[in-house]
Amino acid sequence: MTVLADAVLPLVRTRAEVWRRSVANAHGTRMHEAVAMLRNAAHGAGDPAEVFAVTQRAIAAALTVIMRADDSSGIIGDAAGIFSSCTQSLRRAPGWPRASSSTG
């Protein structure tokens, strides 16, 4: 794994009992730290391809967590949504090819 992946993914992945609301909320806070790291990497000197790959892995991990979590406060789902929006901003970053649009 890369340095970015080593820093971000452990904040998203968990084996904790996230079905307990207090544990889920604490984990959601850590997920938001991961979001901040990815945003800094995306807007800093980070390699866009690496940031994109780590973001995709973070989304997959977040979905796994949310399937077994008590996310009644919405903190985990919010972080997962932000991960998803990060991928959209990375696709618009300089140096990334633009998707062609077709009408038809």
Question: Could you characterize what this model shows?
Answer:
This protein starts with a helix and ends in a 13-residue tail after the last helix. Helices cover 66% and strands 0% of the residues. It is mostly helical. The protein has one domain. The protein contains four helices and no strands.
List the helices and strands and how they pair.
Blueprint: H1 3-12, H2 21-43, H3 48-66, H4 75-91
Protein name: TetR family transcriptional regulator
Organism: Mycobacterium botniense
Which outline best applies? elongated
- Low-confidence region ranges: none
Q: Which H/E pattern describes the elements?
A: HHHH
Beta-strand percentage?
A: under 5%
Structural domain tally: 1
Could you give a short description of this structure?
By secondary structure, this protein is an all-alpha fold. The protein has helices spanning 3-12, 21-43, 48-66, 75-91. The protein has one domain (3-91).
State the main characteristics:
single chain; 104 residues; mainly alpha; 4 helices; 0% strand
